[in-house]
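Notes from the 1:1 (GR / supervisor)

We went over the backlog. Supervisor wanted to see one worked example end to end before approving the batch request, so GR pasted a single chain during the call. The sequence is below; no edits were made to it. Supervisor asked that the structure be written out right there so they could see what the output format looks like.
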Amino acid sequence: MENVLRPLIVIGGSVVLTLLVGWLVDLLLRRADNRHPETPLWRMLRRCRLPLQVVLFTALLEGTYRRAEIAAVEEHHSGVTRTLTLVLIGASAWLVVKIATAVVESTYARYAAATRDPARVRRVRTQVTLIQRVVIAVVGVVAVSAMLLTFPAMRTVGTSMLASAGVLGIVAGVAAQSTLGNLFAGFQIAFGDMVRIGDTVVVDGEWGTVEEITLTFLAVRTWDERRITMPVSYFTSKPFENWSRGGVQMTGTVFLHLDHSAPVAELRAKLHDVVRECPAWDGRDWSLAVTDTTPSTILVRAVVTAKDADDIWTVRCAVREQLIGWLHEHHPYALPKIATAPAAEPAGPPAKPAPIIRTGRG
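Structure output shown during the call:
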């Protein structure tokens, strides 16, 4: 009977104590969240309940499992101890990442709620995202290293490799020069405020919105829902257009090739009517002028404004469509024409060819 009760008491006691501590921590965090609803930290820390319980249960089990006096466990004492140690290290890393993520996200949420400048919010969001990735990477490397050091063979190898760590570091730096360059470029982008998540950019002739920034690559979502993945070093070594830099307001142009007889004054008045009826126009500015001429046409440029890149595209399309339709309906003569008739024959008899005059001997 004792052989059955002892394992039940040890394992069951660890489970009950783990559940009790987890419930108590969750209760305290819930009360703190009710008292301070303006701070999302306590609500986010409640997500750490599961890794906390795994850490607590593994630690209790590692310290008390030998008291259960289970024959199968005693025979594999070293293997069970190492397994519990590995689980404890992994769960501890999980808990640290969860806590760090909750703190960082809480800080960002409070900053975003208190700041009305969208550009600053996007900048902090970019920095917060990279900080989270750095924390996860560092904690993951430390956890994996700690797991490997639990094996005696790995400790011996690690001690022997420390003597050549400098040479290996130089070799690894040369071999991973591109990767390290992208890594430092990621920090430069995040904290140099070059480009932020949510910015509208034009890279390699493609227009899109920055969707994700990591330590090594940057993803741009184009207007047709494609994703362009580029190394972050591209944005530190080549010029690119950032339409959100210094504000998201945009000025767009529409060019029309018209006949020389086009009624420019009436067209200008029609443009004013079009932009006033367009919901995407922000009301800041509009204009229409003849900017160039050719032997067969004139080049008319319409300038309109909007609050962002999406609206400027809408306004330009509306202006182009309605102006062409209005000209076609009311002034069709103003649209450019291409002469396709054959050339007229000259009147009268055909001219005689000029005589050929030869000089010299022959």
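Supervisor's comment: The mean pLDDT is 76.
Batch request approved.
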